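Hello Y.,

Per our agreement to keep a running log of every chain we model this quarter, I'm adding this entry. I've kept the format consistent with earlier entries: sequence first, then predicted structure.
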Amino acid sequence: MYLGIDFGTSGARAAVIDDENRILAAAEYAFPSGQGVSEPLSALWQRALFSLLGQISPEIRLSLQRILINGTSATVLLCDSQGEPVTEPLLYNDNRAIAVIESLKAIAPAKHSVISATSSLAKLLWWQKNLNHLDFSNLYFLHQADWLSFLLHGQLGISDYHNTLKLGADPETLSYPQWLLEGLNQFADVPPNLPKILQSGCPIGAVTAEIAEKFNLSKNCLVCAGTTDSIAAFLASGANQPGQAVTSLGSTLVLKLLSYTRVDDARYGIYSHRLGNLWLTGGASNTGGAVLRQFFTDEQLTELSDRINPQQVSPLDYYPLITPGERFPINDPHLLPRLDPRPDRPEEFLHGLLEAMAKIEAKGYGLLQQFGASSLTQVYTAGGGAKNPVWTKIRQRYLQVPVMISPHTEAAYGSAMLAKSDSPNF
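Predicted structure for the entry above:
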């Protein structure tokens, strides 16, 4: 049995699978929301982790062979040599490091994916610049999944090639490039300890004796190098061949295409994660379900979609955004939403929006292939938009490949799949 744990934005989830990929157990932990939450984030994460383990039956816990945790990409924290956090973590969407973006551009290669106010490296530079009272030589820089895994295996300073991508690590050599090491030295006499990089899914070591006793785990239960939530969600879909892709139709539109070839170009918001001997390349658009929710309820979306002929082309030329700014396939922070003219009939307006998003999706996959990614052969769909059959038919008309709903969409399931794999290579 194999346990996957997913730490997302609103809570944490767990899934246990067997050798046949059947789900044997599941658990959830919702993060508190609203005012008055004074608990440190790291303490909340630890409580969530231990709660999930506690929710699984003792019999299943004792049979677990491997555990793997995913976390939100570029959620980071600084710890002391005992693994105790010394600052509040900075979350994936924290953009305070915009203040050091010019310094980041000065040390990173042009078009590199770390050149973003929310990247792990940007946050590290911000800490080095603003926390100069700390002795960084005795500190460890970790990602959310790194620290949570440490709580189970007890070995400080270990990460994976997915979480460290936005830190500037080279996923091919599992090392930090010279430009990064020299750049960090410009910001501090001695930078913090960067985590060792392992291939996601590789065993790190057995759970500690304390954890084994506390949760009735086998002393031989292994903790594996983790991954990010979006990679875990991709793995959950079942896509495993070059040319297969996953489109997530959530609040935003996220594309991921499995490819023989690595494609990176920050000018277009494109970057690639390594997956064994293959590459997972893609990008994220600001269009998506959040735009639809501005205008329609779930009930209206269902009712109006039934009035749309998906084989008929909408004459409307929209670029649906909530606010100005786009990341991919057009990288323009000033791109204006285009939502006019608005027809009198709401189903015609919805038709125009769905068709526009389908065009953006097709343009995104076209751009990835234009830059050398493997040819698109099949698209799995995850997220709330996957439930709309009319939208699926419109998308298939533009994509010209089979489009289907992912059999599994939970990132916890994908993490369990990765934990189970003897070798993460496809």
